[in-house]
């Protein structure tokens, strides 16, 4: 089997052979396309458009397919099925989505615009259902959002479903949220409002009550081969020697005994989430069909869940394997043919060096940036930016045409995913530092302002992650409990500092809805038996629509929530009016002050200097540094219109943030 590296560095003669095989295969399969066009009544103009895309993307798609599946006896059959799947999905795509495809082929970097600002939410917690969510499109526009990520909303198993990540049916919305038609109508309204729709594609596993899993349980061997199922512990034990446990406090090992089939089933995450066997090309074809169905609902971006785990190979830890990249690339090239306006977003909460490997215009065009998220919180705890700047200098740049998604909180926990070598290089013991951060953000460290709670605490290894809302982690919960007005002020400044960094550092800023109101931990989740065992529900609070009343200054003049909302709304508007904040290019500025983070953003002749103070003490930066970095002598802070001269040191109040433009 040809690996990803070899496939890109093979000898010209071998490349010519693969291209010959690709062209000959397509020539033989073309008659099947005529059948699709006749069945779908696709006109000749669209047929020509599809053919143009085949000419561009069939060879790279075929190269990945033959690398992954070329030794299979049924390889040619699956090539035929994959081509037909692409053609049918293309034919089913609406005129509006085809027009969106056309624009995005012309402007493939559309998601790098300064206009893109995201929000993420659970439909039931935010608005009960999809119909009511449509009533709040104006709310998203007023806040300034142009990207809306709806957490998993497809049909799930009853009871515990891992927050929606145990999918029972990719073509049916959870009945409590609405219908597929409701989702399609929402997508249409969002498109009209200029808001891009983002959904999850949970493709590493299905729920144990998915149709394929149920057929496997009924003894159908064809569907048993959709999963990893073993009659005894012999092979699972061989795999287990190299596998890590994802949820060790919930269950041990990566395999679950299924009494009905009398087999061990591979379940990386929860016992009810059955890992798909992508070594079987039928699984790839079937999941491609599901992916393109979702795309045709009007989705602009698909978040690919748990990308690191999708390929298994004996003798490895079955994470981040070369075949996983080839698999995602195959999905990507098939999508370029059928729905080229769609963008992939990777979710890889792994080592920073592995995260970046998924980011490429031919794989995942955008990716979560878990390392930035973790290190922004690390800098707040230590009041120093040394580890943050060290990491940014080495690990922030991305391939041309790609982008980070920068976030501060999400539905998931916080894991301290910095590189141990980066920590050691500046004198930090990585293990001890993670222990300090865990103590700090659970409020167990003397002087901590945080009110997080442990997630998956392992007393044997000392491993732990952190749950909690942004506001509770930043000190607002503690300050309210203690009626500490200065504490409230500092907590708001911390939140706006972090928002100001994600909105300006380069990439797509993403809010977890509720952050715009400074919502606190929701401890009532323990009353629900389906949620009580998962502390992540503490930072998934229900939207309180009565908060909007506080936007009226006469009603709530001293409202903390109103201040947070208006400050964030203003910051988003300023971002969207400043071309310097487009794209991904970012250059750090050395300022000889470890409490400060400073960098330059520039695009199309527009230039902005950003400086943030991560300390509760006043800090300063030499004015000459600003002059040489910003190429000017006088600057204005876009966030509050304060003017600065570089003839004097620039002073920053506790947790102050400056977006400085030369005047």
From TrEMBL:
Highest taxon, organism lineage: Bacteria
Question: Which Gene3D superfamilies is this protein grouped with?
Answer: 1.10.1740.10, Glycosidases, Golgi alpha-mannosidase II, Oligo-1,6-glucosidase, Domain 2
Q: Which SUPFAM superfamilies match?
A: (Trans)glycosidases, Glycosyl hydrolase domain
The answer to keyword Hydrolase applying to this record is: yes
Keyword tags = Hydrolase
MF GO annotations: hydrolase activity
Q: One of this protein's Pfam families, by short name?
A: Alpha-amylase
* Glycosyl hydrolase family 13 catalytic domain span: 120-544
List the PANTHER family.
ALPHA AMYLASE CATALYTIC REGION, ALPHA-AMYLASE FAMILY MEMBER
Q: What is this protein called?
A: Alpha-amylase family glycosyl hydrolase
Naturally occurring in which organism (per UniProt): Roseiconus lacunae
